[in-house]
């Protein structure tokens, strides 16, 4: 069983920790345990409960009303939400619940059904990427079991690769983009997602994958002369030095824009300089893709 902090619940549900504490005091659906130092922690079941309650509350149900519902009534109300955004958030929450329960059969079936209904690109944009954004915080804080991370990652990776291989487009961009993850970074999903977006819009993609030494990047850059370098940093090894990485990229590839996205860009507080460009949000990354010509 996983143990989640109140900050984890805030990140996954969108409900502020202050509000969660008030709900604990007034209602009976959250009963956290505490460490010997009096720090709250929450179980899988409490996480699943708060995801359901947060979704209903966001789409119009008063918390005092939800508190009086049975579990069956809550599930019924969630399934009855007909706003498109609410339906997408419900699917993302289902994936989170399947992940914490290690129910990979249900996880894959839920994802597969959405792909059948909406197509791979919409699934990636509407479901997979929001799911990754939410659980990426748990990966950074080690609040999910590595087995959960590996199982989920492998399923999503398979879906992304199938989507990439199935792309057929008449679009043709003149720009080429080299995609890579530096040494120590193995979380490939964000980079594969960018590969899918770029290829579907006709860009020439040079995909190096994960854990690539700087000398190998330099060799390919000298040979292929890409217009952009792109990396997505989720979490890296203990020996990874972000400052040194940015400095080396700036020195070796001063004439090529080096775009970096991912959770690590949101925790880096120092000023960056060209050719380094951060894309801190999904919308910023999408804007970069849409503006390529």
Description:
Helix 6 (84-100) runs antiparallel to helix 7. With 293 residues, this protein is an alpha/beta fold. The protein has helices at 6-13, 17-26, 44-58, 63-66, 71-80, 84-100, 104-118, 120-141, 146-165, 189-200, 214-224, 242-252, 263-267, 282-291, and strands spanning 33-34, 40-41, 176-182, 204-212, 228-232, 258-261, 276-279. It is globular, with a radius of gyration of 21 Å. The protein has 14 helices and 7 strands. Helices cover 58% and strands 11% of the residues. It folds into 3 domains: 1-79, Orthogonal Bundle (Multidrug-efflux Transporter Regulator, Chain: A, Domain 2), CATH 1.10.1660.10; 82-166, Orthogonal Bundle (Methyltransferase, Methionine Synthase (B12-binding Domains), Chain A, domain 1), CATH 1.10.1240.10; 170-291, Rossmann fold (3-Layer(aba) Sandwich). The longest helix has 22 residues, at 120-141. It has a 5-stranded parallel β-sheet with strand order 4-3-5-6-7, sandwiched between helices. The protein has a two-stranded antiparallel sheet with strand order 1-2.
Structural class: alpha/beta
Please identify the oligomeric state.
single chain
Distance between the termini: 48 Å
Strand order of the largest sheet: 4-3-5-6-7
CATH architecture of the largest domain: 3-Layer(aba) Sandwich
What is the fold-level CATH name, i.e. the topology of the largest domain?
A: Rossmann fold
User: CATH homologous superfamily of the largest domain?
Assistant: Cobalamin-binding domain
Highest CATH level, the class of the largest domain: Alpha Beta
Mean pLDDT: 91
